[in-house]
Amino acid sequence: MAVAAVTRFEATDSVNVVLALVSAVAGLAALVPGLFANADGGALNAATDRLATTVGDGWARRRISLIGDVHPAELPIRRATHLEVGHVRVEAGGDPVGTTSSGIARLFLNTVPRRMLIVGEPGSGKTLIALELALSLLQLRQTRSDTRVAVPFHLAGWDGEGSLGEWLAGRLSSDYRVPAAQARAMVGERRIVPVLDGLDEVDGSHADRMAPGSRTVKIVQQLNGTGLIEWADLPSVVVTCRESDYRRMHEAGLRLRDTLVIRVHPLPESQVENYITQRFESAARPSPLVSSAEFAQSLRNPQSPLAEALRKPWLLGLAIAGLQAGVLDARRLAGSSSYDVLSGELLSAFVEASTLLHPRGLRPSTHVARAAGNSLGGDDEQQRFYDPADVLRWLGTLAAHLESNSTGGSAQRDISPLQLWRLAPVRRVKALHTGVSVVAAAVATAFAAEWADGSLGLALTAGAGAVALGFAAWAGLHPSPRPSRPELRQLARPQVAGPRVSVVLATAGGTAAGALAGGTGPAITSGTGAALAAVILVGLGQGDIRPVWPVDVLRNDLFFGTLLGASLAIAGGLPGGLTGGLAAHLHLTQRLTQAGSIALALAVGLLAGVGLGSRAWSRYAAAVLLAAPGGHVPWRLRHFLEWAYLAGLLRVSGRSYQFRHEELRIQLTPTVAPPSVAP
After folding, report:
1. Sequential DSSP letters for 267-336
2. Backbone angles phi, psi at 338, to 5 degrees
3. According to the per-residue pLDDT averaged within each range, which of 16-30, 131-145, 341-355, 413-427 is highest?
4. Most CB contacts within 10 A, which of 302, 307, 388, 567?
């Protein structure tokens, strides 16, 4: 508690400390039910409904950001019985013959057991079909009184250790903030239908997949159930995999049992033309079908490289982006000599096209609105855009980082915010982080000196300094600092009043306690300190179910350190500044004036709070300070990653980013890694 305008620790101050803490705890009473969410029937039903709404809204926005607010192309699908093994049947009304992607949800619901594997070649649209399946199941859920929720996940985040249920429950908690007890109950009662993308991306090569104990082997074993489980009791699941990779797995004996296998076929010509027409309806440039007779003629020739390439949704999307941005020429595409040449040209132009189409400073809400209207492009002179050369270089650094962290011949795929610090030389990052942490610990001891004078003050200051310095060294040298948990957005949710009520009550209680103990000064200190304590504890609560984005991880860690530092500053520096205990002998108020002493206390507190409390963010900031001057990464790396996701260059997988497509990662990986990713 602050010692304002006195030179030693007074008994009334200790009473003030106790009263303020009691007031803060009492004020948080309204939050206690939310801290320990239960899993009884009514609460579980409500939580499942919230999860369904959250997943549906979130993935619908992601679809719009990828393809715009247009009707998805109807991808033909066929059953691949030669890749099936075990018991699986399709009931009446679910015949896959002639089915397209829009009918895949009903096909899944008519499959016994409800297990589906979607296979296709690279760029064929497997992920889009899986996404459409998940969204359709969520929509049908409302009309079928079905408690199950289809939730997409990327398999690259699972190592196959532990059961499928344990992994799903953990992902629900980490990715959507579902309370642990409710997540386990949802999975245990089979309310979750996991849509698992990328079985082929778990390991690198076929040899890696088939090696005993590989991640792929473990995952397939988990998906097939353990022991002698009956086929009808297998969990519902949807999986995607490249057809060529799964065919080799199947031939080698690694197969998903009792699972309907669906193969994605190329788009028909009519679907390609309709989709191009839709995407150019509101675009700044005319449709290539109108502006170039050569393009239209080549597209209608089934044997042409253009028709072969654009029948794949991935390459079709690349072509549309390049043509809308003016990077690609329709006549040049029509005259391509081969499929390989054309696909390489489309891929090479994608980063530049996305950079020109998406201004800096994109936010999810505004981006979805722009994409929904297909109003991509720079028609606003006030908009600022990245330089495509910079974007290529920064993405190359990320791709090299993933390649340098490869294991067993398989490149790492997750761009985790907690591992971004490895983009700079590891030893230098740790040294800088440790130095900053030690300085933060040293200045933090200034608050210990505020508590008492004389030998007691020296003992308290020395003890606090030793503990702080030890913690600082541990934080700076830790191989992988973890972020703080508080989620502060809970205070901004209008439909959840409990957290805000708790903060208000804690503030009122702390202010009253301070006023009773010592007047106006202690009242300000106690009330503000109690409010910050309440905010931190609110953030530690379970909160409401919502997606956790990669950008939230480091941002929340920084918020936590800032609040912690503000709490220290308020406790030690308001309302009089650093004037008590050993600090009284420095006569800071006379030297700096009272305002200057308060400002010094705030600065010291924030440095100590961020340096010691925001360990993950501090490590990330140290890496940016080392890598950004050389141009290997942007100064605002977190904001760039969010922009790259919204621009369609990256995708979100849980709390990490990944390159939008494996071909894009390979294309951007430099032959020689830049110095910033060297160990």
Report:
1. PPHHHHHHHHHHHTSS-SS--HHHH-HHHHHHHT-TTSHHHHHHTSHHHHHHHHHHHHHT-S-HHHHHT-
2. -155, 165
3. 341-355
4. 567
pLDDT bin (cut points 50, 70, 90) of residue 510 is low
Q: Which of 28, 29, 31, 24 is nearest to 512 (CA)?
A: 24
Structural element, H or E, at residue 261: strand 260-264
The residues that bridge with 652 in the sheet, in sequence order, are: 657
| Tokens (6 digits) for 416 | 């985790």
Angle between helices 588-613 and 615-627 (to 10 degrees): 90
pLDDT tens column, 609-621: 888 788 889 999 9
Q: What is the per-residue pLDDT across 554-598, written as a single tens digit (0 to 9) for each?
A: 888 888 888 777 776 776 555 566 666 566 666 666 677 777 777
The set of residues, in sequence order, having a beta carbon less than 8 Å from that of 161 and lying 6+ positions away, is: 218
pLDDT grade for 495, boundaries at 50, 70 and 90 = very low
Phi, psi of 111 (to 5 degrees): -95, 135
d(CA 421, CA 432): 11
Helix then strand then coil, in percent of the chain rounded to 5, is 60, 5, 30
How is 364-384 classified by DSSP, letter by letter? HHHHHHHHHTT--S---TT--
- How far is 453 from 584, CA to CA, in rounded Å? 8
**Residue-wise pLDDT tens digits, 4-13:** 333 333 444 4
Query: What's the pLDDT score for residue 349?
Result: 95
Given the structure tokens 């980063």, which residue do they identify? 351
Residue whose tokens read 């398989």? 410
| 608 contact partners, CB below 8 Å, separation of at least 6 | 440, 441, 443, 444, 447, 468, 565, 568
Instruction: Say if residues 385 and 363 touch (Cβ distance below 8 Å).
Output: no
Question: In this structure, is the dihedral angle defined by the CA atoms of residues 110, 116, 119 and 123, taken in order, positive or negative?
Answer: positive
As given in the structure block, the two tokens for residue 119 are 């296979």
Q: Taking Cα atoms as reference points, which of 142, 85, 144 lies closest to residue 110?
A: 144
Question: Tokens standing for 512?
Answer: 């009253």
Do 280 and 72 meet the contact criterion of CB atoms below 8 Å apart? no
Q: How far is CA 462 from CA 289, 438, 447, 469, in A?
A: 77, 14, 12, 10
| CA–CA separation, 505 and 28 (whole Å) | 7
Exposure of 210 in the CB half-sphere (CA atoms within 13 A) = 14
d(CA 264, CA 243): 9
